[in-house]
Amino acid sequence: MKKNLSLAIFKHRDFRFFIVARFFMVLAINIQATIVGWQVYELTGSVLDLGLVGLFEAIPSIVVSLYAGHLADLRDRRNIIVICLFFLLVCSLTLFAFTGPLSFLLVTYKAYPIFLVILVSGIARGFISPAIFSFVTQLVPREHYPHSAAWMGTSFQAGAVIGPALGGIVYGSFGMQMAYGLDSVCIGLPFLLFFWINKRSLPERKEKEALKDSLLKGLRFVLKNEIMLGAMALDMFAVLFGGAVALLPVYAKDILFVGSEGLGYLRAAPSLGALLMAYYLTYKPPLEKSGRVLLFCVFGFGVCMLVFGLSESFLLSLFALFLSGVFDSVSVVVRSTIMQTMTPEEMRGRVSAINKVFIGSSNEIGAFESGVSAKILGPVGSVVFGATMTILIVFFTFRLSPKLKELELKDWV
User: Fold this and answer.
1) Which residues constitute the domain of residue 144?
2) pTM of the model
3) Three-state DSSP class for residue 157
4) Fewer beta carbons within 10 Å, N or C terminal of the chain?
């Protein structure tokens, strides 16, 4: 019965196109992230520059996110996605050109041309995130929201598993130009696929609002919802301090000595764990004792990061990252279901944008934090510090957010 409920969502034609397109988009983003991280570290040898890659993506993404959410509640969401995918395709082709006709720019300016491309990519990703989140709820009925959140997680993690491994293997076996070429093809496919998805009309607003009033309305909605605010804040601080992705090139090259192919496996390990768990959750969404499950999984994520930070064994490091993905996948599905079920249709874009500021950008700012703390504490000290902070944040949230702790999602679906 659960299997039928899980797969019934694929009766919706546009959702099928959407999930395939999302998979290739995530695949391309992760291929690119793996190559860019390795390329920047080879160009500069600086852990701080690895953090700067995240910062150059986070700043523009944060700056445009709230307006992007406002726009997603006013304009055709499919068109916004298509335009953003076009710019992401241009960025991928530019990085590809840096390996050929524009390679002289890297000789002269080192990693700065790459930072500029990442900045443009950050703007596009800042606009696409609220549109993606708010568009998917228009493709399926409400009773399928928990399953759509789980399948969204599955497609995301599938791309995140295959992307880093594929990027590392292609880069190591065929060179950087071929790897960036593959990245360009993979981001071009969702750009084309979204033209096959039908447009959806937006609910009419009862009254026109000024930009400032529109943004404040979305912000007030989140701030007054203790459950949503608690879930966002918990994941934001966990990702901000607990992530070690930005330092994986350092671990691969200088601590575990496994090279670019090993880097691909290290990047893929958490996503593999997340993929398997996300697929399981398509059949059994975490609808009971959801708040306690969320807190436990973020705690488990922090413990895994602590083990990874202290490990000098490649296999133990892979296992710790794998388990971190398992825990993270559950927290992502819980948080996504909270947002889908508790947000009115006419405010989905703005709420998603606030979530992007809270969580999405904390990935990139967390990468910068990792780079800065690695400069001060060393890479191992940086990861251990971040993991310890994540564990402490779970205890603070447990005490300060009783409604989140007692959340039962089955009451909302």
Assistant:
1) 9-196
2) 0.74
3) helix
4) N
